[in-house]
Write a structure and sequence with these properties.
Layout: H1 3-16, E1 20-22, E2 24-25, E3 30-32, E4 35-37, H2 39-43, E5 46-57, E6 60-71, E7 74-87, E8 90-99, H3 100-103, E9 117-129, E10 135-140, E11 145-149, E12 152-154, E13 162-173, E14 176-187, E15 191-193, E16 199-200, E17 204-212, E18 222-231, E19 235-238, E20 241-244, E21 253-263, E22 266-268, E23 270-272, E24 276-277, H4 282-285, H5 287-297, E25 302-310, E26 317-325, H6 346-357
Parallel strand pairs: 1-12
Antiparallel strand pairs: 2-15, 3-4, 5-6, 6-7, 7-8, 8-9, 9-10, 9-18, 11-13, 13-14, 14-17, 15-16, 17-26, 18-25, 19-20, 20-21, 21-22, 21-26, 23-25, 24-25
Amino acid sequence: MSRLSIALLMFCLLGAAMAVEVTFNTNAQVSVNGEAFVQADLDKAGLSVRVMTSTATTNGIIAYSIHAQADSEGATVDIEIDTASQTSNGPITVNSHFDTTVLAPTGLSFNADSSVNYIASFPYAIVEVDPNGVDVAVHKVRDFLWSMTNDLTVRAANAASLAAKAFVGTTLQGSNTVSLSFSVQTAAEVGVSSFKDQYLIPKTWGFILELSGYTLQNANNSLRIIYAVATGDASIQTTGQLTVTNPNPEFQAYADLASTAVFNGNGLAVNVDAFAQANIDVNSLFPTINTQLVGKYGTNHKVYTANVTFEAGSNGFVYGGRSGTGYRLNEVKRNTNDASSLSFSAAFIVFALAVLGLFC
């Protein structure tokens, strides 16, 4: 079947799909490693405001947010620019964090060169492996036919605190159409999205990968995701987790892959390898992202990959992870200072809103 035929088939399938309205519960408790968090836990030290807006683009979405915080240690403003986009080679997310002390000399010129940290992540391949771990079939994400869909629609009441986007790729396996969706969400505060009940935090893309329509060559074989991260020098803490450190932990960048998955409503056993440096040419896949990586890290930017292998016999999966900047939620030190003794000037809030207005 020609690529045009595949495109027409996918158009028909997407056209028949119902849009999914996504809501966001900021009152829900988020549990990380058995510890519960709500937004108030992050704001007890003082008065805090994060303002976010998102803009649809021809190839994805951009979420801008600015955070103003006044506490016993003073007042700070930081800016986050997060993008999710696609090319013909597949989807990719970017988290870039800016400190106003860095931006001031550049005249608020928002580019990767002046970012405090920059991290991009993307699914690289879906692999079928035999019981000995030998590759039986490799389906690179760039070989799928990718399109944006509107099947994630944020409820108007949540538009100021939630941004979401979905990308769908299809490929043929014999006469079967295999579908791989990559759905991403980010939020202005801690909460739980109605889409897959995914917990979200500021400055972070939460992603969901879903594969369906695949036929294993042998019932004893397993599916594997090769997930890639492009950034600066990173440290590997544990399986499926890496961190680009910074003297100020608030300015670090990180990527985490989940240890659980589901398919057809049932839990799947998952084996997640540690990230390791890989030889992937980002420039051939995402030239614009590569230019930004070079602008930020020069020749020191690197690509890391981790293998995520699902239990034998499953011909699909629903799997998640996240990438972002700043603290991981379970690394945040709960604040206990008395906010009533602090003042958050109106001028400070106006400044924050004015800077965000540069993007609107």
